[in-house]
Amino acid sequence: MKISRLPLLLFTLLLLPGCAGGQSVPTVGPEAEKHTRTVLAMDTVMELSVYGQEGSAALDGGEEVILALEKLLSVTDPDSEIYGANHSGGEGTTISDDTAALLEQALSLCGETGGALDVTIYPVVSAWGFTNGNYRVPEEEELSALLERVDYRKITLDGDQLTVPEGMALDLGAVAKGYAGDRIMECFRDEGVTSAIVSLGGNVQALGTKPDGSLWQVAVQDPTGSGYAGVLSVADKAVVTSGGYQRYFEQNGRVYWHIIDPADGCPAENGLVSVTIVADSGVLADGLSTALFVMGAEGAAEYWRACGGFDFVLIGGDGAVTITEGIEDSFALYGNWTDHELQVIRR
Ligand code: AMP
Ligand code: MG
Predict the structure, then answer these.
(1) pTM for the whole thing?
(2) How many CA atoms lie within 13 A of 78 on its CB side?
(3) The pLDDT value given to residue 13
(4) Is residue 173 lining ligand 1, measured as CB closer than 6 Å?
(5) Residue spans of the chain under pLDDT 50
(6) Which residue among 121, 149, 159, 233 has its CA within the 20 to 30 Å range from the CA of 35?
(7) Farthest-apart Cα atoms in the chain, separation
(8) Could you count the other beta carbons within 10 Å of the beta carbon of residue 16?
(9) Counting atoms of ligand 1 from 1, which one is nearest the CA of 262?
(10) What is the DSSP letter of 20?
(11) Measuring CA to CA, how many Å separate 297 from each of 192, 272, 275, 303, 320?
């Protein structure tokens, strides 16, 4: 068996000459001082970059946000609120504003995506070994028994009271980094920062533009190799990818990845190998990247047409790239990928 993770490079920030668009957002000037920090948290490497004189204080605040959220949301730390709720024997537990805010958004997304995102999938993810690295392919009967314990609609959230029924477990892994991105941006703004970018194990979130006023260049990883498939030019956006290549194992020549279809408890195989969502909100982008991966290209396009409020880049197993019209002018295929088929979905 083989496990592969690409924690750092899922998105690498590319500074490509000639790709920047002009805009009128306020800047802190091309010579603004750059402050950076690396934080190891949530099982990943997080890189924060802030421009301007407020940078150092903002980084302290951003790091605090990350560490505090990790303490609240970890599924394995016995002191976390999520662990407490998962091990409460079906009793209600009191949670913080942050955990409640994230759960409220996550549970809505589970509903809106018809359960393609299901934050109670943990027992199944765990049976496949994605929680501890003891990878195995569970039998169908085992999966059907476990799926009885998966249903986000059975979670009760009432203000600061959370109840996880006995035998069920919450795992916010599909949305936690997105929420962290939103909270970091809030903290940076409060510090007076107008130009910053963070990469939280591949979730990229940008505040404003680059200090010279040009757009941030965010690369979309080539799901078949180590380079890039495309580049997005963004300001004030979250750019989040879910990819089968990010975490997987191989057994008897088959690849099994970490994104599970709650319909059958197996790795989602609907023709996509990577889904990137571009949205104002990190938690929306993170939740939808996982959900649309489960839905497949047709389901994703249908969902986008029905709900909107975000854009996507889908990469199929056949190498076809599909984007929504909102990023037609801000997405470009990159390197070897420039001769791949690029389809634009319209309303
Ligand atoms: P992401 O990398 O954001 O797509 O999140 C994937 C992680 O979320 C996995 O490692 C699992 O812990 C969990 N997960 C897998 N499938 C689902 C699903 N359908 N709904 C919610 N969480 C999931
Ligand atoms: Mg996600």
Answers:
(1) 0.92
(2) 0
(3) 41
(4) yes
(5) 1-27
(6) 233
(7) 62
(8) 12
(9) 19
(10) P
(11) 40, 7, 9, 10, 10
Residue indicated by tokens 């991105």: 181
Question: Which ligand is in closest contact with the Cα of 5?
Answer: 1
Answer whether 226's CB lies under 8 Å from 218's CB.
no
- Between CA 334 and CA 331 the distance in angstroms is 9
- Residue type, position 318, single letter: D
Cα gap 115→109, rounded to integer Å: 8
Which residue blocks in 224-281 are alpha helix, DSSP H? none
CA 134 → CA 1, 129, 130, 255, 264, distances in Å? 10, 5, 7, 15, 21
Strand 238-243, strand 260-261: pairing: unpaired
Question: Does the C-beta of 258 come closer than 6 Å to ligand 1?
Answer: yes
- Tokens standing for residue 216: 């941030």
Q: Which two tokens stand for residue 341?
A: 């088929």
pLDDT at res. 94: 98
Positive or negative: CA dihedral 30, 33, 39, 42: negative
